[in-house]
Amino acid sequence: MQVWFDPGLSFGKMVKRIRRGIDGLTQKKLAELLGVTDAYISRLEADKDSVPTEEMIIKLASALGVNKYHLVLASGRIPTDFHQVFIEHPELLEEIIKRIPD
Fold first, then answer.
1. Coil, helix or strand at residue 32
2. pTM of the model
3. Residue from 63, 49, 56 nearest 77 by CA
4. 3 state SS for 36-92
5. What domains appear along the chain, each with residue ranges and CATH number?
6. What is the distance between the alpha carbons of residues 99 and 23, in angstroms, rounded to a whole number?
7. CA dist., res. 101 & res. 6, Å (int)
8. How many Cβ atoms sit within 10 Å of the Cβ of residue 83?
9. Tell me: the pLDDT tens digits for 33-74?
10. Are 75 and 57 in contact (CB under 8 A)?
């Protein structure tokens, strides 16, 4: 994963960390890039709003210049693109489940 990824941080805090690492990228500018309000970005970064849809997370990843799969996974979701892989190769999912600590 990228240096911004920290499993101890919430999704909103990770988004904030990434955005602050990009020179000149304010909440207002990010909101404009995504077609949302700066109030929405503020709520998202403060964890006062639910985790966005996968579609919005992918837009966020693009605007922030990070891997879309990494950001979707950081949100606690499995990317939709992975679903078919798990259907075709259930042994992969079984292996992942085995590695999850109790």
1. helix
2. 0.81
3. 56
4. CCHHHHHHHHCCCCCCCCHHHHHHHHHHHCCCHHHHHHHCCCCCHHHHHHHHHCHHH
5. 11-77 (1.10.260.40)
6. 38
7. 18
8. 11
9. 999 999 999 999 999 988 899 999 999 999 999 999 989 988
10. yes
